[in-house]
Amino acid sequence: MATDDTLLDVRGLTKVFGDRTAVDQVTFELPRGRSLAIVGESGSGKSTLAKMIVGLEAPTSGTIWACGADRSAPATGSRERRVRGRQVQIVFQDPYSSLDRRQTGAQALDEVLRLHHDYGADYRRTRIAELARLVGLDDRQMSVRPKALSGGQRQRIAIARALAAEPRIIILDESVAALDVSIQAQVLNVLMDIRDATGVAYVLISHDLAVVRQISDDIVVMQDGRIVERGTTEQVLDDPQEAYTQLLRASVPEPGWTPSRRQKRSTT
Q: What is the spatial distance between Cα 195 and Cα 244, in angstroms, rounded to a whole number?
């Protein structure tokens, strides 16, 4: 059960689609103010796991305790969805598809503030300005629609929108995977600054070990729906014990990397 120190407690979580088990008996905890990375190849079950945590998929079995409440079943009404939204938010990989193309950044944030909080118009404007500064956006960028922004700027809007609900947990589902390396670094720095400023906890879903190393404290490695290794990020990435984790680590390009060298390493 999640407590003040453990915001998220997942126990024996399983999801079956027909004859395929996408997530198989997954258990982990997320302490307050920490960042947990869930890594693995495509199809390892990590995104299905994220969808169950946020309530977009119902578990076949197992429990999810978030912020002191049982969230194992999806919300059944708008009031419960709002309560959950104030506790757990998710930022998806593609901000352009998750943002309303008819809304400016300021309008997107204002909608969340009106939905989740009883704030007056003046305070909402002040809060929107605060959130914009937090993610490094200016008034002009907040006043245009998503099509007028770069990918990195749209992702900052998506992060600010998640923060507007004032959640205690944010799930980042491949949230920087579509960005180029320089923009990735900027967005990751913003996320770390936000964690320091607000105490929010992150669940980072990623296959990119460089991103994982930069932002996460702890890590679980998934293969075929199961957790095969876990520990601090430094321990797991610097000294992986499982063959699958070692393969993931070896797949990260290093200076002098070539496809022929990678093939040779994978066959030895």
A: 30
